[in-house]
Design goal:
Blueprint: H1 6-39, H2 49-79, E1 88-89, E2 111-115, E3 123-127, E4 134-146, E5 151-162, H3 166-181, E6 187-189, E7 198-203, E8 207-213, E9 216-224, H4 233-242
Antiparallel strand pairs: 1-3, 2-4, 3-4, 4-5, 5-9, 6-7, 7-8, 8-9
Helix pairs in contact: 1-2
Amino acid sequence: MVNRGSLISIALVLCVIIFIVTGLVKAVSLYRLRRKILDGDSLGSDTNWRRGARIYTVKAVVGIIAYVAMIVFGCMFILSDGTDRNQMPLSEYQGEVPFRTITDLASCDDIQKVDNIDDDVNTISEWSDILWPENYKVYEYGDIVYTDGNICHGGLVITYHEAKNEWLANKLYQAYVHRAKHQSDYEKIDMKIAGLDDVDAYWDGSESVIMRKGRRLIVASFYMSGENRHEGDLEEWAGCIAVSLE
């Protein structure tokens, strides 16, 4: 819902429900008619068949409309991925990003600077939704230069959401955790970050941390080469990103 659009998602579900209900109503009517025929009962010649025909026609039209709308909203749902909308080079973005990015890792004690940022692949997407008004996805790649001279090449992918209320943010956090745990290469990483309402860290091909505080949520995935990594980097970097939620 947050990526595809909550209104489209709700409309699609309603169309599916209407389509199923109208189909069930038709099936029940046919079943009752079949029982009458098998039992030799009167088919109700004294009833107003015209009224019954009008009701049947209305049900059929509603079912057709729901079926067509379901196809339309389904196509819109597939094509409306917010993470791919309005994507632009990060260097061209004129707004203010409400969270720390890879260049902000230079604030960590043992990092001298972040260098060789590739503007061709560093991108940002921004979109809004009625239930999640503020959403971003940022891809960044570069070289982390430590104070001891070691260089760690890699990237950082951050997904940021701000929900209408804390309940929605909590449900979204649970959905991210649930999806991560169902990855075949999921491996939990023990991590605690002070000041957050929820945090979950894991390995699923990259090191990822899901962080929530109040109505805001960040999913940070770190793709860093391991040969020059310092011990405890992940927790330090995640803590640096978590400052954005304070």
